[in-house]
Amino acid sequence: MEQILIKAQTLIEALPYIQKFNNKKVVVKYGGSAMLDEELQLNVIKDVALLKLVGMQPIIVHGGGKEISKWVSLLGNESKFVEGLRVTDEQTMEVAEMVLGKVNKGLVQMIEKLGVKAVGISGKDGATLKVEKKLVNGQDIGYVGNVTEVNAELINTLIDNNFIPIIAPIGLDDNFHAYNINADDAACAVATAIGAEKLAFLTDIEGVYTDPEDKNTLISVLTLDKADELINNGFIGGGMLPKLKNCIDAVRGGVSRVHILDGRMEHCLLLEFFTNRGIGTAILNNEGILFEHEKVQSAK
Q: Is residue 133 left, alpha or beta, with left meaning phi > 0 and alpha meaning psi from -120 to 50?
């Protein structure tokens, strides 16, 4: 009986979050180690399916970088990166499209198996993601795209017809050439264009720290002013810097809140979305509404 009551309490705890985000669009950027472990992968897909079944409108934007690197290596080539972005020639672009297409349809298959409708697309479909060549400090790194425009018509059509859109980060330039897009960039662009209530990044870290060497410095709630302060004072570096800048841009673009979560944690989406405990780091605008547990965490 005690275990049953604990389960009932968990459901009651989730109620205000379900009410607040009912029928709201939420974007999940899916990548990192959570894509490589079958059990973690299934847990993420179950979480997304549950978000849909309790009334949210989830959209998945996925990566596949480690799988792309594996196939580039199998072809006898070496993956090269500049500031975290893959140098993408014609052959690498073909590999990226092949791998991302396979990943995309695999995710569709997993969601459909749970009895939830899903459709996999890339940014090429319906001219969803329009791009221009992305330069890194003036350096040409090949067919890597910077999103210039999102046509949300196809995404919204799928949502309106009760499908979960699953988007591979491939876009087209003005000459209709395919470009690989950093999945973080694609997720932010999509979330901003559709007016998402939430954007969740599944990563291989627990969240944002003031001191990455001290796990006790995890920041649970981060306003835009505080995020700018951390960046300007040099507290944020490495791979977290572009990710946090993406989060800031998304919130400034109208996304209500952005979450950086450890995708290696079982059911991380449900823990962040539906519990008083919360995990990871939530980034929101300076006037954002805090839940009660966030007010306590933010004050620390």
A: beta
CA separation for the pair 34, 49 (Å, rounded): 16
pLDDT tens for the 300 residues of the chain, in order = 667 776 677 777 778 888 888 899 999 999 877 787 788 888 899 999 999 999 999 999 999 888 898 899 888 888 888 877 889 999 999 999 999 999 999 999 999 999 999 999 999 999 999 999 999 888 899 999 999 999 999 999 999 999 999 999 999 999 999 999 999 999 999 999 999 999 999 988 888 887 777 778 888 888 998 888 888 887 777 677 888 888 898 999 889 889 998 888 888 888 888 876 667 888 988 655 555 444 444 434
Residues 6+ apart with CB under 8 A from 156: 194
Residue 212 structure tokens:
């990455």
Query: In whole angstroms, what is the distance from residue 258 CA to residue 29 CA?
Result: 11
CA 183 vs CA 23, 48, 211: distances in Å: 25, 18, 26
Q: Are 95 and 76 in contact (CB under 8 A)?
A: no
Burial (CB < 10 A; 0-12, 13-18, 19+), residue 216, is exposed
Cα–Cα distance measured from residue 116 to residue 161, given in angstroms and rounded to the nearest whole number:
12
Instruction: Answer positive or negative: Cα dihedral of 26, 29, 35, 37.
Output: negative
CA distance 120 to 72: 23
For residue 139 the two structure tokens come to: 């350096």
SS3 222: strand
Q: Which two tokens stand for residue 299?
A: 């004050």
Alpha carbons 212 and 234: distance in angstroms, whole number? 12
Nearest to 150 by CA among 107, 118, 195, 120: 195
What global pTM score does this model have?
0.88
Strands 178-180 and 170-172: antiparallel
